[in-house]
Amino acid sequence: MISFAYPHLLYLLFLLPAVALLFIWGRYNRRRKLTRYGRPEVIESLMPEVSKYMPWVKMVLSLVIIALLVIMIARPRATKGLEADASETTTSRGIEVMVCLDVSNSMLASTTDDDHGISRLQRAKHILEKLIDKMTNDKVGLIVFAGDAYTQLPITSDYISAKMFLNGITPDAVPTQGTAIGAALEMAMNSFTPNDDMGKAIIVITDGENFEDNAVDAAKRAASAGIQVDVIGLGTSKGAKIPIGNGRYMINPMTGEEVVTRHDEATASQIAHAGNGIYVNGASNSSITAVDEKMNELAQGDFERKSFSPQSEQFPVFGFIALIFLIIYSVTVTRKISWLKKYRFFTKEEGGNK
C-alpha cells in the first residue's frame, strides 16, 4: 500500500481539468479565428504540415507529467515492504505546542515606528520558524485568527509541513477581520491530545489589539487546565499605519483619516500573566530564547511517532517516470510526422474499393 507524507498536496491534481479546459478553449479559439479567413477545409489545405492530432498528444503528455510531479512532491511511501512493514514506530519525549497567530490587517503594519519597516506578520513568521527549529521531539500545531479562529495545521511532529503552512499565511486566511484572541485560545485548548503526561503550551503572537472577546478569562481557563499561555507582542506603542498597496494606507471611513495601529502591551501582558506564562516583545533579540526556555520548564511526556525507512520512499520512481515522459514531450513535435504521412488512419474509403 501507498501512503503520502503530504497528502494535502494531492489537491493540486485539481489543476489537471483546468489545464485541459484551457487547452480546449485555446484550440476552439484558434479554429474560430481561422474561419475568418475562409472555409476550414480550404485553410487546412494551405497548411499541409499542421497536424490535427499532435497538439492533443502533447497536451495529454503535459497532463501526465503534471500528475506525476504532484504525486512525487506529495512524497509517496510504501507502508509495507516485500518482507516486513517499511515503517517503524519509535517513542519520543516532548511537549505539545499550539501556536495562535494573529493575521488581522493590523499585522501588516510595521513592527517599528517606521511605516516602511518589516511587517509584524513577517516578523511573526521569522520568530515561529526559529522556534520550530529549536524543537526536536515536540509536537506543534497552528491556528490563525482575526475576527474568528481557524485551525491551519492540526498538532503534529511534522515540522516541514508546519513551515510550509506558515509561509503561506496571509490576512486572507481569515475572512472576518478583528482580533478574537479569546476564540483562538479556546480552539487551541481543544486541539491538544488527551495525553495528560505531556506538558502543553499555547504561544500567542499578536499586536495585542483585542476587541472581540475576553482573552484574559480564556487564558485563566487554559491555566486551570494545566496549559501554559505565552504571548509574543509585536509593534510599538506609538503605532504604525496599515499599508493596502501602491503606497496607500488604510483609511477610517468614519473620520477619513489614516488608521494607526498600536501595540497594546498591557493587554498582552495580562493574557500571559493569566495563563501562567511569560510576555516578551517580539522586537527583542532574546524573545525566542526566552520563550524556548519557558517551554523547557514543562514536563515532557512519551508519545509514539511513526517513521519510514529510506527504502519505503517511492518518489524517485515517480520522478524517473516523469523524466521519461518529459523527454518524450521534448522530442514530440506539433507538425505532421513525415513517416506517418503515407498512412490515413481516419479517412473513410469511398465505394467500398480497396
**Helix fraction bin:** 25-40%
The percentage of residues in β strands lies in 15-25%
Shape category: flat
Strand order of the largest sheet: 6-5-4-7-8-13
Structural class: alpha/beta
The biggest sheet, with number of strands, parallel, antiparallel or mixed sense and barrel status, is: 6 strands, mixed
* Distance between the amino and carboxyl termini: 53 Å
Count of helices?
10
How would you describe the overall organization of this protein?
With 354 residues, the protein is an alpha/beta fold. Helix content is 36%, strand content 20%. Helix 3 packs antiparallel against helix 10 and helix 6 (181-189) runs parallel beside helix 7. Mean pLDDT is 81; it is low at 81-87.
Task: Describe, in short, the structure shown.
The protein is of the alpha/beta class and 354 residues long. It has helices at residues 15-34, 40-45, 54-73, 120-134, 159-167, 181-189, 215-224, 265-274, 287-296, 315-331, and strands at 2-4, 76-78, 87-94, 96-102, 139-145, 149-156, 200-206, 227-233, 240-241, 243-245, 248-249, 260-261, 279-281, 301-308.
Topology readout:
Blueprint: E1 2-4, H1 15-34, H2 40-45, H3 54-73, E2 76-78, E3 87-94, E4 96-102, H4 120-134, E5 139-145, E6 149-156, H5 159-167, H6 181-189, E7 200-206, H7 215-224, E8 227-233, E9 240-241, E10 243-245, E11 248-249, E12 260-261, H8 265-274, E13 279-281, H9 287-296, E14 301-308, H10 315-331
Parallel strand pairs: 4-5, 4-7, 7-8, 8-13
Antiparallel strand pairs: 1-2, 3-14, 5-6, 9-12, 10-11
